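hey so i finally got around to running the thing on that chain from the lab meeting. sorry it took forever, my laptop kept dying and i had to restart like 3 times. anyway pasting the input first so we r on the same page abt which one it is
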Amino acid sequence: MQNLTVTLVQTNLFWENPEANRAMLEEKIAGIGAATDLIILPEMFTTGFTMAPERVAEPMGLTTFRWLKQQAAQTGAVVTGSYVVREGGQFYNRLVWMQPDGRFFTYDKRHLFRMAGEHERYAAGEKRLVVEWKGWRICPLICYDLRFPVWSRNGGPAGPEFDLLIYVANWPAPRAAHWNVLLQARAIENLCYVAGVNRVGTDGTDKPYLGESALIDFRGERLTYQQKLEIVHTKTLEIEGLSTYREKFPAWRDADLFSIA
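ok and heres what got predicted. didnt touch it at all, straight out
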């Protein structure tokens, strides 16, 4: 396995304006400069966290999907984030994992944020995604999923299922302390790297966001941490340190066996 270079895109978002957000993000991606393996965008990166999916939803395969495909091909990196998708008469908060060769995978947000009524407007996902890229096993999840450690659990006594756990988010400022603590907890308990990518600014409902996007190592230590500002940050994750730590501190061997109904 090789090391993995990850780019976090922490940005403000234009409210319910997919065209403006794609144009803005395209400029930010073009400005990355250094080579990267993985570019992570926030949750609902074309709209902000909207509860009016009928205004902005797209069928799979159309504008934003094609845009992701183009960005991945141009950068030679995976580009991932979630946006609003209409499929089978339902709306989904869907993460698309787009590879440079055009292959893609999807994950529909499992835990819908009921305090905003998300569970009334969107359909919940049923399957978790673990995908391999550059020899790394990666599990991408979405925002409120962060509060549910069972859904984020990294295997059992048979061994870890993934090396990097991702959370794309629109996590508001009043609960920023929860975001920070839970990201570190997920890294520690799962013996893996964690990437949390949140937005900044204020959305169309006047909710403020502080960002606080971070890369966290398997000990729970922050490798990067960005607050309030719009910033694109790139960092290389080292596989040797992760492998050595798992060998020296194999807590995964004592994990409980269970299944998710």
